[in-house]
Amino acid sequence: MDNNLTSEPKSNGVKKGGARIIVDDDDEDLSPTDLSEMLAEGTKEAHDRAENCQFVKDFLRGRIIRELFKRGTTALYFVYSAMEEEIEKNKDHAHIAPIYFPTELHRREALARDLEYFYGEDWENQIRLSAGTKPYVDRIHEVGKEDPVLLVAHSYTRYMGDLSGGQILKKVAQRALKLPRTGEGLNFYQFEGITSHRGFKQLYRSRINELELDMETKQRIVDESNRTFGFNMMVFSELEGIGNTVKEEVQEEGFGHSHAEVIQDDINKCPYYAAKMAASGNPTYALHLAQRCLGVPPCQVALAWPGFVSLCRALQPGTFCKAQKNRHLPLS
């Protein structure tokens, strides 16, 4: 991937500071041994397992209650506090410095504002580190102290997910919980230092691909990323269990995204999932995905319908529409 410094480049999504970097849109330069490609390929199964957690599926349908959202925000606060503390300690490390973007990415302060909105000024005395979140936090501190290169896995998995599928959750939560359109309670999802999510993700992937790492270390990072998915699933499972006992009426499904809105967001934010749904024979997803990828009107898609569905079924989900390196589960 060719990165060129210039005074008038195409935006990389970073709003402030430093020379901009042009990120070539041509994916042909990527190699299967690039870390971003290894992470995409090596975490497919973990991505699928996490994607199919009941908590995530319910969330995407708008079936999220305020108490669970508050507790989920609390879990994220402890996770990001740990991760950003360790990133800060290791910001001069050879493998952390290139992906050190505190202004653009760090979430701790945003989460603190969200917790103050939900719990009030005394929020710090009302939250606690849960049993389901503690192993995740402990692991982050462990790698930060003993093996900082593995922070690459934690940073990549979390932040890239937040910039991708996490944006779907923002819209669902705002509608389901009737949160203010001015953004209170949803600061976590607002990346004010980034003007283009897509451009910044390209920049971030190019940075991790340029890290000087041997294959053994790259594989350890992939393994740690899979472990990170596991920690997130522990948090989801805990929240699901709490949801079964909380004495509060579950929001009607209609408070979530409309069906059409969810489909469009699935395609825009997580094309891997949309392609998989199309490949399973879901006609609505296949139609919208065809329009998105082929850039033709619905009537033309309908004429080519049988061939398009066959193509979806023939392709591996991770390769359709170059989705495998861009896909990210909404872990947030």
From TrEMBL:
CDD domains: HemeO
Keywords assigned by UniProt, alphabetized: Heme, Iron, Metal-binding, Oxidoreductase
GO MF term set: heme binding; heme oxygenase (decyclizing) activity; metal ion binding
Parts forming coiled coils: none
GO BP annotation list: heme catabolic process; heme oxidation; response to oxidative stress
PROSITE patterns per record: HEME_OXYGENASE
Keyword Cytoplasm carried by entry: no
Entries under PANTHER family matching the protein: HEME OXYGENASE (PTHR10720)
The protein, known as: heme oxygenase (biliverdin-producing)
Record organism: Crenichthys baileyi
